[in-house]
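Lab notebook, page 48
Experiment: co-folding of the full assembly
Goal: obtain a model of how the components sit together before planning crosslinking
Operator: M.T.
Materials (sequences as entered):
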Amino acid sequence: MPALVSKSLRDYRRSLIRWTIGIGAFFTLYLSIYPNISQNKDIYGKQALEKYPGALRDLLGGLQDFTSGAGYLSSVVYQLFGPMLFVVCAMLLGNRAIAQPEEAGTLELTVTLPIDRRRLVFERFVALALGLLAVAAATFLLVWVLSIVSDMDVPADRILAAHTGVFLLGLFFGVLALAVGAATGRKGTAMAVVGVVAVGGYIVETMGRNVDWISWLRWLSPFHYYLDGKPLYQGFPVGDYLVLAGATVVLLITAVLAFDRRDVGV
Amino acid sequence: MTAVVETEGLTKFYGKRRGLEDLDLEIRPGEVFGYLGPNGAGKTTTIRLLLDVIRPTRGRMSVLGMDPRDPAVRGRIGYLPGELALEGREKASEYLGFLGRARGGVPGERITALAERLEADLSVPMGKLSKGNKQKVGLIQAFMHEPEFLILDEPTSGLDPLVQQEFLAMVREVRSSGRTVLMSSHVLAEVEHVSDRVGIVRSGRLVAVEDIAALREKAVRRVELHFDAPVPREAFEDLPGVRDLRVEGAGVRCTIDGRPDALIKAAARFTVVHLVSAEPDLEEIFLTYYSESEEEGRHARAGVQEPA
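Observation: model returned without errors.
Model output:
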């Protein structure tokens, strides 16, 4: 493994462990109350959910089905909070690639190593992707085991499909933070951009289903390529995931080119 | 032999602010070059340009015969940043190990030997290191791969006097092994004992490059002579190189520029009982350069403002 990748992973280790524990705790909490919900279909059933105002239901992903295993997972865990936790985790890791060390001043010595600037960005990306993959893999195993324990009756490949989507979505936002940091050197700017794109993207994708004048914006939203394919019901939305991965590659190339041509630490 | 550093019209503007303008600099193989100037004069800008941390607005440069954009050249350089940032829980020894691997491998014994020499404790997390200890880690990483060219930005800041002496000894060893050093400072006294030449930079411009030996010759020296009887003032007046003459009874005080020869010959006609000559104050010459260049600048500006 290149020195910079292993060094970055070593730097990320503590926060990767903390995020795995945090996201794992979130999944455990929500999955452990599922048996309670599946046994009280009259409280959490269709009619109960229809009492919510339409716009709120849209924001929460429609709330069509709460009591089946797949329905519960997709509307509670994989709809909003699961992806958002990954997005925040990836954003913070993405910032540690360039912007944070640049603001702290530690990047100066790194760029004077005999490592090509383009390679430096790429190796930091590899560390980000591997770190995020480790968090995703550990939490996938946890969800899979918990789904069996809680009798959710959701096939493992569907959970894997949803979890892969969460990973790809997180990676996209992580590379977005990395790219803004590589271009500007400011982690505050990177966080603002990620925040606007993530919240805006989520609102556009969910509200856009029923609001005509913003529905055309949905194809711009990164969440569209994760939520629209309903991976927990329909398995891997291969085309959508390829779009997410492709957008990530485009951002990475942008990051590499932007960092290669600018002054560091001024 | 080709120059270690060669720049031509090297210029860097940060937006409209001038960092460095039209720098023509040559650093020769095997020399220790002292790069002097007050804070903000352009020393760090020059160094960052040489290491491709920042890119020139215009001008040309080559380092070790290569374009600084080529990453391979950086493997042959040891660099101590002026504001060295080390942070986190990582131990200094782990960080040095990483830097060594990234530079193609450095034997662990060499790191240990340098750490012992500078009395640095590498088992402490870097975030907890004091300023002086961070500087030691910075020096270790700059020297450890035995680079052909060392670029040290304010290397002695934060070091206690004993470690400073050890550091200067390390610089002398580098020179005697035929390698080259560029070290910056805002205090001449820090570099004059190891430098062969000094360049003086001010407000983004190189105002002088001098041999230290030549600088010594030009140095202002305060001299005090005491005689066994009062001496006539006329005997010392109008001697070449003698300024600020004060004759008080049997004592003569003055400053001399350059050689003390004329003064000694004049004094030899009387009986000298006591002679005090202070160490040449290079700092003073250094400041003379500054005030001269400042005046030139003022004249130049005044000339521009005159109506045509």
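Interpretation: Chain A has a mean pLDDT of 91.
Next step: discuss with group before ordering constructs.
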